[in-house]
């Protein structure tokens, strides 16, 4: 039993395992440390191979400088390094590693084999649980090969906190991608269970590396940026505002060849776009920063991904200005013809709901992008000139009357998808158009029966009851109606699917592809069936019937973005987000003028909602003005102490 009052030095293996808790969090951490060692060894080619998401095997092969046989065992000692030798070296670090903790930490929690050579006789060593098992001569190929097997075999508690195999593999892929972006002059390959996930040419072409990771379609929308001052140089590629993602994870900051995480500089990237980005959307960017090492302190984080920069605001401004200057000279109007290239769907509406089902499903209101309202046909009619009362009995007037009788009504005819709110009113509207609705409260919700008066600025509906006046936000009102419809539709996924004439192909980076694959069952529950198509792509051949025509691809991408930004999203939260998104997409917008039939139908459907008072985002649907408040505004009600006239 340990005497808690006695201070003693920890055994070497135990201290290395403690250090491993900081340096080796998961398989991706091992890959990062080993590949960074290979980069520091001036390698021109690095091959990474993993099995079982790195838990069974991690193998890194490089063609770097290698380690002399006399120094191999020293490399496995804690704080043994060739990269710094004195205190002042900490303030001019140009390598990725310098602490000498990686190899002893890894070898303390795994079985490690290393083969290395400087070009002469090679050396092979094997460590198990931090102890040297064997050392012998090996082949003389210049470079180093490190194999890490049975990771965390002697620390089983660490295994409990690892994620699913695909998630761990995605994290490894993300590390390799970042390192490849940081060093396009090195040829990288990444293989998992015999399947190649990444290969770069090593020609120093950053755009080629971007294409290998994100795909050719993404690269076509990336633009170069440049900027510099006396001490700092900024370069890289950023996406046009039309190409965005749902999280900041696609912004890569590379400082002197080291991938870092820095929130102020990430904000500077976003600030460079100004108001050109949609709220909640972020660009894809690779920003390379070359700065004097004296301005940077990398010795502040165990994994060295967070650094201190003495001139951070200046670097942020340089990045923002470079992005702003690039966008200022660019034509930012998206290519509209890309939508015309898609096959035209001969069926104008994807589904309809009968009037009898209306009360059950509470479907969304009319589509905003409906067909133009038909007008009176233009028949060739001879102009009629009336100069006196006698001219009213002429044959031309009689002929005109006959033509007019045969013309269709000028009342607008609206589409009936999914349920035509105007058709519903047209059946009763012609008879009750001028009859005010009752102003009693609906018993179920306490929501008033609103009598429509008019519309303000194409955005707000004015309505009244016996005692109050109301302003209704038409977008928020229809968003609430649509939300409750889609929430029900999404919760009752059916087998009804709309086949696509041309399937949708979705391209992702390897890390994203693996994360999506791990959550395909979640997408299946909402009727989105993805099939693997190529290395890092999915194909969609059909979609649920409740998708809005023309927005199928965008809707699927947005739903997948939620999974990528929140790996632990529940089915309930996923359905909630989807219902909110669909309700917003199909709601009428501000500055859209409604006719009387449409406005009355909107007000009639609103009380049927479970919560008619707020839109799905929490904004109010309507506000109330009481008669008393209105009379006070016009000074029709005055306080008693103001009624007496002042005697002069």
UniProtKB/TrEMBL annotation:
Gene Ontology molecular function, alphabetical: ATP binding; ATP hydrolysis activity; ATP-dependent DNA damage sensor activity; mismatched DNA binding
Classification via InterPro entries: DNA_mismatch_repair_CS, DNA_mismatch_repair_MutL, DNA_mismatch_S5_2-like, HATPase_C_sf, MutL/Mlh/PMS, MutL/Mlh/Pms-like, MutL_C, MutL_C_dimsub
Keyword DNA repair on entry: yes
UniProt keyword annotations, A-Z: DNA damage, DNA repair
Gene3D superfamilies on file: 3.30.230.10, Histidine kinase-like ATPase, C-terminal domain (3.30.565.10), MutL, C-terminal domain, dimerisation subdomain (3.30.1540.20), MutL, C-terminal domain, regulatory subdomain (3.30.1370.100)
CDD domains: HATPase_MutL-MLH-PMS-like (cd16926), MutL_Trans (cd00782)
UniProt domain DNA mismatch repair protein S5: residue ranges: 210-328
GO biological process: mismatch repair
Domain MutL C-terminal dimerisation intervals: 452-594
GO cellular component term of the entry, any: mismatch repair complex
Keyword Ion transport belongs to the record: no
Reported function: This protein is involved in the repair of mismatches in DNA. It is required for dam-dependent methyl-directed DNA mismatch repair. May act as a 'molecular matchmaker', a protein that promotes the formation of a stable complex between two or more DNA-binding proteins in an ATP-dependent manner without itself being part of a final effector complex.
HAMAP family named among the record's database cross-references: DNA_mis_repair
Xref: PANTHER family: DNA MISMATCH REPAIR PROTEIN MLH, PMS, MUTL (PTHR10073), DNA MISMATCH REPAIR PROTEIN MLH1 (PTHR10073:SF12)
Family note: Belongs to the DNA mismatch repair MutL/HexB family.
Protein known as: DNA mismatch repair protein MutL
Organism: Lentilactobacillus sunkii
Name of encoding gene: mutL
């Amino acid at each position: 039993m340990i005497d808690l009052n006695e201070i003693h030095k920890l055994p070497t293996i135990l201290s290395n395992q403690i250090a491993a808790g900081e340096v080796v969090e998961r398989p991706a951490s091992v890959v990062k440390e080993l590949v960074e060692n290979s980069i520091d060894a001036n390698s021109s080619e690095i091959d990474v191979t993993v099995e079982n998401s790195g838990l069974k095997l991690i193998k890194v092969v490089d063609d770097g400088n290698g380690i002399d046989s006399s120094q191999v065992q020293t490399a496995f000692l804690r704080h043994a390094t060739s990269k710094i030798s004195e205190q002042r070296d900490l303030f001019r670090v140009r390598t990725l590693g310098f602490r000498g903790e990686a190899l002893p930490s890894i070898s303390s929690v795994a079985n490690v084999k290393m083969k290395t050579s400087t070009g002469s006789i090679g050396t092979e060593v094997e460590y198990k649980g931090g102890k040297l098992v064997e050392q012998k001569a090996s082949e003389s190929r210049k470079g180093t090969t490190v194999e890490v097997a049975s990771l965390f075999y002697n620390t089983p508690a660490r295994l409990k906190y690892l994620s699913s195999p695909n998630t761990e593999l995605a994290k490894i892929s993300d590390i390799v991608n970042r390192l490849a972006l940081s060093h396009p002059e090195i040829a990288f390959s990444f293989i998992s269970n015999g399947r190649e996930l990444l290969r770069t040419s090593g020609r120093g072409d950053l755009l080629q590396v971007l294409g290998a990771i994100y795909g050719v379609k993404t690269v076509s929308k990336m633009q170069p940026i440049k900027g510099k001052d006396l001490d700092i140089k900024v370069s890289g590629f950023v996406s046009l505002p039309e190409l965005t993602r749902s999280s900041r994870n696609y912004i890569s900051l590379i400082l002197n060849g080291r991938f870092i995480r820095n929130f102020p500089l990430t904000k500077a990237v976003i600030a460079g776009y100004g108001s050109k980005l949609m709220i909640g959307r972020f660009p894809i960017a690779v920003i390379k920063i070359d700065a004097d090492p004296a301005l940077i302190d990398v010795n502040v984080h165990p994994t060295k991904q967070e650094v201190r920069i003495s001139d951070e605001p200046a670097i942020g401004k340089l990045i923002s200005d470079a992005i702003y200057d690039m966008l200022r000279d660019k034509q930012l109007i998206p290519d509209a013809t890309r939508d015309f290239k898609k096959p035209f769907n001969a069926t104008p509406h994807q589904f309809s709901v009968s009037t009898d089902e209306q009360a059950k499903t509470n479907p969304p209101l009319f589509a905003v992008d409906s067909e133009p309202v038909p007008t009176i046909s233009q028949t060739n009619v001879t102009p009629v000139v009336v100069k006196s009362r006698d001219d009213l009995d002429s044959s031309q007037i009689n002929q005109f009357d006959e033509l007019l009788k045969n013309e269709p009504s000028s009342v607008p005819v609206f589409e009936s998808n999914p349920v035509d709110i105007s058709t519903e009113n047209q059946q009763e509207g012609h008879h009750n158009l001028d009859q005010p609705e009752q102003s009693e409260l609906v018993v179920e919700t306490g929501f008033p029966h609103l009598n429509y008066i008019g519309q303000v600025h194409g955005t707000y509906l004015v309505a009244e009851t016996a005692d109050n006046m109301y302003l209704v936000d038409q977008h928020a009102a229809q968003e609430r109606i649509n939300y409750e419809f889609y929430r029900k539709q999404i919760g009752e996924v059916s087998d009804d699917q709309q086949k696509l004439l041309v399937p949708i192909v979705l391209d992702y980076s390897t890390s994203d592809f693996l994360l999506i694959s791990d959550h395909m069952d979640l997408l299946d529950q909402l009727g989105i069936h993805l099939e693997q198509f190529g290395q890092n792509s999915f194909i969609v051949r059909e979609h649920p019937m409740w998708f809005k025509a023309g927005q199928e691809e965008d809707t699927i991408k947005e739903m997948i973005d939620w999974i990528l930004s929140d790996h632990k999203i529940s089915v309930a939260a996923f359905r909630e987000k989807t219902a909110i998104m669909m309700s917003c997409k199909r709601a009428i917008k501000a500055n859209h003028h409604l006719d009387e039939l449409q406005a009355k139908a909107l007000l009639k459907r609103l009380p049927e909602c479970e919560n008619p008072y707020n839109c799905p985002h929490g904004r109010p649907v309507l506000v109330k003005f009481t008669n008393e408040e209105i009379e006070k505004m016009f000074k029709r009600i005055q306080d008693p102490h103001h009624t007496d006239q002042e005697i002069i």
